Each structure stands twice: as structure tokens, then as C-alpha cells.
Design the sequence.
């Protein structure tokens, strides 16, 4: 349902939404986020779902490795490292105040 | 009603009752600690038939029962994402298993219960072992064990595996479970999905059970099959079509799946997973007792975590760890190796006192067989054992995933993701277990690239040559240069393989568990078991080759080899002609190149510095570093992939060594001219 919503609404036109909806790589570390959509391929998406990461899941971005490395997030109490390319395909909603 | 019908009252030749147990659970939940506590040293390590997945087995006697335990690989789910999952699933439903012990990390219920829910669907007698209860209680939390028993309707045992608490209760429960028979009426409030999914599952269920003799034909319960059919699980789709003879089209599975996906606006895997996680969420609320004022203080583990993933200190620590592996492996290996070599020399002189030295048989058996055996111990095993130990420490403490995290970006340039760093770190000690370790890679492509890169890492044996020759006679700065060239070569090979191999680099998805103090018992046992495996698998090959080479040597078959190789050794690489044969021996064990060189120099009354110029030493060491994986590594590569690929890698590395060696040689020549 989230997918249809965010496809239908051109993001640029909703100025108040722009800072809220981001991909995981863009968020600051330490932020509490809610997953909105995982735009990855079949296998990666299934894997992430099994590890408990799917639309609606609340996660915390812990850190990302130096030089644009992978992202470490906390999902359901455990640390998960996700390659940067994949992290860029995970759309999240910032729960707390956004820095932009 | 009994759903799973194990051949009850199984007994062995001694008339004891036998219970076969499979240990299942997520990675890093203390499964192997429990396994170690129970089985002690009675463990064997092998492969699952036809698969490159490790199989740990052990047994013990307890209360008059004989228990066979199999430690399944750590998995997150019973799908078919990895080989480990397929192996585990097939094994659990096989006739061999009487019951499962599901090890659950009590500090991480949500993730762990996901697997539990799928195991429950298999309707096999199950015991839930909640591990790490001490840590949970330290966090001012507890589990309502009675409530869990009530909800899941199966035995539940709280465990503190590292202290052995609750471990033997597991076996007592197992005996009770087998004695009393297992009644598995799955608690619907625990495992049911949403109504629309349940309706479809019921329809599929009916269709599946309507087949005559369904129970004999399928080791899986119908409901489990129905879920997996809906999930589009390739293996189960095939199984239902071929073994049960059902047509998937007539079952309208596509249609059902589409209905659900349209209804939820998500793909089927997300729907099913989120339903399960939703159930889990409600259950954890019921079973987890949360004391107020939960304080989470920063502890040592957090500090180490911060440092090892720091943008500067993280890399400094990575380098220190690599150096540490070298130094530890070396100091112990050199010391023990020296001792064993001395013993061998004493024995050899004794043998020659008793037998005539020109007796061919004695030479073949003693020099070849025994020499090979002792050489394998003093030259390989003494390095392999301390190395396994460091690796177990790194693995058990949780450092290796951090290294993968830090290096992921760099490894992507080579066509693999960060996990390859783990096998490459292993490669610094010994390429043989490191290449075998490449099976942790998810796809065949990545496994192949990882193996190629790992086999180029200078191992402890190569380090003896480099340090013993260049480090000792030329200077440590040149050792550094050699290392840089070596890593340059790894980079080039990685780039080439990444470009030429079809497919794309997959992204890293990896759990990073918190640091913990390694358990010394587990480490010692694992080290012993792995070394034991190495002794039985690799040593026989080395001994046989020792005999073969000795025969070749005795009949002077090797003399012409130097001559044949002379254009390469003498002209192209600028080395003395005699090194050709040393390089051939080096395939067996890399450090032999130096050992034989030193022996040869001694025999003709020269020192190594008189035999080789500093430039030649550098070229010689460089070629030794790169020219081919050692024989044991080649065998491992062939077993993990194919002989074709093993030979390909060998040829690539020979080409690379000749190319770089030639360039270095000719640039030195130019340097001396000007």
C-alpha cells in the first residue's frame, strides 16, 4: 500500500514530505526510521523480509562504514549490515526531527 | 494423534536406546557451545553428502540412552536462500531425526522465533532451549517459562550454555518426549496467519492430503508444503510436481498468490514474513517480563565495537590484527617446527646407522614417506594449529564481521562483497582452510572470485621465505615492497575476474552480533577438531607426494627439469638454473623453496648471499609468493569448485608471477646498467 502511495504522489510536489522520505544511505546516524519500501530485487527483498525488515518495520541507523561503505542498522534488536547499493534501495521515513 | 512417527525404541547393537537429535538455530546463538558441552571430544566434522556444507556430529551416553547429535549450520529461516537452509530442512524431515533442539537467543527473541515458527510447522518433536538467560536477567528482564510451555505446547528449557546450566536438562526432556510420545497440535493462536491466507492454506491443504498415501510420499506436513508453495519455494514446487504428481496449474497457486499480493500491495514473501513477525510480536509481549528502570550502560563491548568500526582506528586495528595473526602463528610454529626438525635429524642419523645409505627402499620410505610426514608436521601442521586457534578467537569474539563491514567498499571493486575479507584474513595463516572457508559466499560467482583472491594471499609458509630471504639479507623495506606488489596482483586478478565472469556482485546482508569474551573451551575444542580434520585429509596426500618426489629424485628424473625450465628461470627471471627444481618442490610446500636453496648452498659450500644477489633474492621471493597455490590449496579449490577452475587459477597465477617477475628482473637489469 505504501508503494502505491509513494508512486502516485510525485515526491517533488509535496514540499513538506521531501525531507521525511529518504533512502537509508541519506539519513543521519542515530536516527529512528520507519521502512516505507524496499525496492530491491526478489532475493534480497525476501532475505531482508526473513530477517524482519519490510515496510512498517522500525529501525535505527547505527552508522555507515567509512568512505561510503555499507550501512549498519538495528532491526528488532540486532545489528544488520547492509551493502550500500542495497541500502540505497530501502526507502525510509524519518520519525524524529529531520536535519534537512 | 502423533504427527511425526520416528521409529520409536530405536536401539543400537549394544541394546541401548538411541535418540537422534538435530540442533537447530540462528547463527551465533551458542548452538556450538551447547553441542560442545554435550558431546565433548566425540565430535567428527565432515561434509553433508554432495554439498559443501560442514556437518558436525557427536554422540554421548546419558541415563542409559545413546544420543547422536548433529549440529546443523546456523540459519535464519527454512527457505532456500542458502545451501545451509536446504541441507538443514532436508535433514530435519529425514527419518534420521527423532527430535529437534531449537536453540534460541533469549536476548534476541524476535529474530530467533522466526525460525522456531517454521520449525514448528514441520511437526517434529521439538524442545526449545532459551540460551543466554544470564545476560537477559542482567538486563533486568526475564522469560515466563510456564507461559511459553503453555503457548507452544512443547518442552522449554532455560539454558546458560557457557556455564553448562540447563544443558543436561535438555537430554532429560528429550528422553521424556520420546518415552511419552509427542502430540503436536499446533497452537493456532501462535502459528496462524491472517484469515485470507489461512483460507487459501486450508484449500491447498485439502488438495494435498487428498492424494493417496500422502503421509508416505511426503516427509513434510501438508500445511508446511502449502505455505512453501504459496511462497514460491523452488525446491518445494519441484517436489510437489515430481514426487506428489500434482499439477501446480490445477492447484491455482499462481492465482492465489496474485490475489494475496493484490490485496496487501506487497509481494508474497513480505506478506508471510510480516504475518509471522506480527505473531511473534504478540507472543514476546506475553512471555517477556520487563522490569522497570532498565538501564543500558555503555560496556566494554560497545567501546571495542566503536573502535573497530572507527574510520581511522578501525583500519589501524585491522592491520594490527593481521600482524598479530602472523606473529602468533610464526612464533609458535617456528619454535615447534624447529624442535620437530631436530628430532627428525636425530632419527635419520639413527636410521642410516642401521641401514646402508644407498638402499633404495630405505631412501624412498624414509626420505620420502617419513620425510614427507615429518616435514608436513614441522612445516605445515605446527603453523596450522596456532593459526586455527587465532581464527577461532576472532570468529568467536565477533571481530571478523567488523572486518567485513570495514572492507566491503574496497572489496566491491574486486567483484565480491565484504565477507571475502574474512577468508582473506584466514589466508594469511594458511590458504587451505581459507579457500575452504570461501563457501560462506552466497553465489557461485562470488565463491569463485573469493577463492582466487584468497589463494593469492601470502600465507605463513610464504612469509618464511620472504622474511628468511629478503627480510634477513636485503631489508625490511623490500618486504613491504613485495607485499605491495602482491596486493597489487590480487587487485588485478580481482578486476579481471570481475570483468570477465558473468553476473553481478551481490550486496552484503550480514548480522553483526555484539562482541563477547571468547569461550576458551569451545576454542580449544574447535581448534583440535579442525586440526584433526586437516591431519586426516591433507597429510596422507603430502606423504604420498613426498614418496613420489623422492622416487623422481632418485632416478634423476628431475635433473632435466632444471634444463627445461632454464629459459624461464635463468633468462626471464635472472635466477640461477638450479632454482627451477626448488620452485617445483615449492608447489608441495612453499617454504621448501628456501629450505632446499639453503641446503643446496650448504652442499656446495656457499652461503646464500654468495649464491644469490639481493636482486635475485627479491625476484625469487616474489615468484614464490605468486607463482601457484600450493598443492593442498589446489586440491581444496578443486573440491570446492572444479578441477577445471583449480587449473585455471594455477595457470593465471603462473602467468602473473612470470609477468611480474620478468618485469622486476628486467627493471633491475636496467638499474644496474645505468
Sequence:
Amino acid at each position: 500500500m505504501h508503494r502505491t502511495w509513494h508512486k502516485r504522489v510525485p515526491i517533488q510536489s509535496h514540499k513538506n514530505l521531501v525531507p521525511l522520505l529518504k533512502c537509508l544511505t541519506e539519513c543521519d546516524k542515530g536516527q529512528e526510521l520507519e521502512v516505507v519500501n524496499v525496492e530491491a530485487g526478489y532475493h534480497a527483498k525476501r532475505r531482508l523480509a526473513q530477517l524482519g525488515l519490510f515496510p512498517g518495520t522500525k529501525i535505527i541507523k547505527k552508522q555507515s562504514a567509512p568512505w561510503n561503505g555499507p550501512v549498519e542498522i538495528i532491526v528488532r534488536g540486532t545489528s544488520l549490515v547492509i551493502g550500500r547499493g542495497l541500502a540505497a534501495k530501502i526507502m525510509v521515513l524519518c520519525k524524529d526531527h529531520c536535519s534537512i | 494423534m502423533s504427527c511425526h512417527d520416528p521409529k520409536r525404541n530405536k536401539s543400537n547393537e549394544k541394546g541401548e536406546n538411541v535418540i537422534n537429535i538435530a540442533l537447530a538455530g540462528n547463527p551465533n546463538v551458542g548452538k556450538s557451545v551447547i553441542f560442545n558441552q554435550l558431546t565433548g571430544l566425540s565430535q567428527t566434522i565432515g561434509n553433508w553428502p554432495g554439498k559443501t556444507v560442514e556437518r558436525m556430529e557427536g554422540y554421548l551416553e546419558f541415563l542409559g540412552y545413546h544420543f547422536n547429535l548433529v549440529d546443523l549450520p546456523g540459519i535464519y529461516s527454512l527457505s532456500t536462500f542458502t545451501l545451509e537452509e536446504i541441507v538443514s530442512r532436508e535433514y530435519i524431515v529425514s527419518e534420521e531425526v527423532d527430535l529437534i533442539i531449537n536453540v534460541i537467543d533469549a536476548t534476541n527473541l524476535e529474530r530467533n522465533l522466526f525460525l522456531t515458527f517454521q520449525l514448528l510447522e514441520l511437526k517434529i518433536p521439538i524442545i526449545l532451549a532459551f540460551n543466554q538467560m544470564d545476560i537477559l536477567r542482567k538486563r533486568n528482564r526475564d522469560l515466563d517459562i510456564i507461559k511459553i510451555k503453555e503457548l507452544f505446547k512443547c518442552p522449554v528449557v532455560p539454558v546458560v550454555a557457557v556455564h553448562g546450566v540447563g544443558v543436561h536438562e535438555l537430554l532429560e526432556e528429550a528422553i521424556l518426549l520420546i518415552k511419552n510420545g509427542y502430540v503436536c497440535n499446533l497452537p493456532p493462536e501462535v502459528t496462524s496467519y491472517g484469515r485470507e491466507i489461512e483460507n487459501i492454506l486450508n484449500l491447498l491443504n485439502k488438495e494435498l492430503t487428498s492424494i493417496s498415501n500422502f503421509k508416505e510420499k511426503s516427509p513434510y506436513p501438508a500445511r508446511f508444503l502449502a505455505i512453501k508453495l504459496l511462497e514460491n519455494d523452488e525446491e518445494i514446487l519441484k517436489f510437489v510436481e515430481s514426487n506428489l504428481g500434482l499439477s501446480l496449474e490445477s492447484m491455482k497457486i499462481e492465482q492465489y498468490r496474485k490475489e494475496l499480493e493484490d490485496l496487501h500491495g506487497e509481494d508474497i514473501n513480505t506478506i508471510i514474513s510480516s504475518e509471522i513477525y506480527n505473531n511473534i510480536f504478540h507472543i514476546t509481549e506475553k512471555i517477556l517480563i520487563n522490569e522497570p528502570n532498565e538501564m543500558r550502560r555503555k560496556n566494554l563491548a560497545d567501546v571495542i565495537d566503536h573502535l573497530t568500526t572507527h574510520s581511522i582506528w578501525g583500519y589501524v586495528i585491522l592491520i594490527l590484527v593481521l600482524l598479530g595473526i602472523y606473529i602468533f602463528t610464526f612464533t609458535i610454529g617456528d619454535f615447534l617446527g624447529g624442535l620437530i626438525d631436530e628430532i627428525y635429524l636425530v632419527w635419520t642419523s639413527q636410521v642410516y646407522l642401521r641401514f646402508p645409505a644407498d638402499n633404495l627402499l630405505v631412501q624412498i620410505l624414509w626420505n620420502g614417506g617419513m620425510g614427507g610426514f615429518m616435514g608436513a608436521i614441522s612445516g605445515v601442521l605446527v603453523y596450522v594449529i596456532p593459526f586455527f586457534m587465532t581464527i577461532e578467537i576472532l570468529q568467536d569474539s565477533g571481530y571478523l564481521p567488523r572486518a567485513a563491514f570495514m572492507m566491503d567498499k574496497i572489496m566491491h571493486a574486486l567483484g565480491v562483497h565484504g565477507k571475502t575479507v574474512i577468508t582473506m584474513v584466514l589466508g594469511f595463516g594458511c590458504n587451505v582452510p581459507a579457500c575452504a572457508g570461501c563457501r560462506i559466499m552466497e553465489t557461485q560467482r562470488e565463491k569463485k572470485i573469493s577463492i582466487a583472491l584468497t589463494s593469492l594471499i601470502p600465507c605463513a609458509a610464504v612469509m618464511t621465505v620472504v622474511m628468511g630471504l629478503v627480510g634477513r639479507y636485503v631489508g625490511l623495506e623490500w618486504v613491504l615492497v613485495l607485499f605491495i606488489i602482491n596486493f597489487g596482483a590480487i587487485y588485478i586478478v580481482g578486476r579481471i575476474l570481475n570483468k570477465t565472469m558473468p553476473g553481478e556482485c551481490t550486496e552484503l546482508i550480514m548480522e553483526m552480533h555484539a562482541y563477547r569474551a571468547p569461550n576458551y573451551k569451545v576454542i580449544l575444542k574447535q581448534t583440535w577438531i579442525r586440526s584433526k580434520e586437516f591431519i586426516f585429509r591433507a597429510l596422507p596426500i603430502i606423504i604420498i607426494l613426498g614418496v613420489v618426489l623422492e622416487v623422481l629424485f632418485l632416478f634423476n628424473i628431475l635433473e632435466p627439469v632444471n634444463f627445461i625450465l632454464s629459459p624461464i628461470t635463468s633468462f626471464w627471471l635472472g635466477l640461477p638454473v638450479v632454482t627451477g627444481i626448488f620452485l617445483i618442490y615449492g608447489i608441495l610446500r612453499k617454504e621448501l623453496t628456501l629450505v632446499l636453496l639453503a641446503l643446496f648452498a650448504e652442499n656446495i659450500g656457499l652461503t646464500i648471499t654468495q649464491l644469490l644477489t639481493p636482486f635475485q633474492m627479491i625476484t625469487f621471493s616474489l615468484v614464490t609468493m605468486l607463482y601457484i597455490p600450493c598443492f593442498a590449496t589446489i586440491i581444496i579449490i578443486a573440491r570446492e569448485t572444479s578441477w577445471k577452475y583449480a587449473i585455471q587459477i594455477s595457470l593465471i597465477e603462473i602467468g602473473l608471477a612470470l609477468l611480474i617477475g620478468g618485469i622486476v628482473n628486467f627493471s633491475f637489469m636496467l638499474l644496474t646498467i645505468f
Q: What stands out?
A: The interface with chain A takes residues 76-77, 79, 81, 107-108, 110-111, 114, 264-267, 269-270, 273-274, 277, 309, 311, 314-315, 401, 404-406, 408-409, 412, 417-418, 506-514 of chain B (CB under 8 Å).
